[in-house]
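Trying the structure run again after the queue cleared.
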Amino acid sequence: MSTPDITTDPAASDEYEGAPASKRLEIVFGIVALAFSSGYVFLTTQIPLRREAAPGQIDARFWPLVIGITAVVIAVAILAFALAKPAPTREDLEQIQPGGYVRVIATLAITGAFIAVWSLSTVILFGYRIEVFPIAAAVLMAALMLLYGHRRWISLIIYSVSLTAFVYVVFGMLLRIPL
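Done. Tokens:
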């Protein structure tokens, strides 16, 4: 058996160019990750406690603080590598496609709208108390799926409703976390 020659393989002759290496992108990512994780650590110190934990016990701030400090350490390592080493090659990544920036901005806008609507918690409509989270979460999922190219309506509805129901049942009903 002979192995196929790469030079005659039509798939290999495509002029594929991966994304170019970017030291600036690596540094910016490290700075943004450090800023977000530092903000997260600050917010974890602001978690109200019903009562202080006795020495040797864990309180409500412990695990969020562990996660935040771990994130800060990782962000510092990312930033240090970005500053000390040359930018890694990104040949395995595709270049930015047309409309990519618009999708990112639209994703942030849709997510921001979801958070704003979710903060209402409940709405009284026609004398009925309606929880906002299930409706807002289903609309969020459907909007993001449409934004990223999903077009089959039946699966769009089924996926959005089932994922929202799963989150609502697990967190809202079983774990009793207010949504």
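The chain has a mean pLDDT of 83. Worth checking whether this holds up in the mutant runs.
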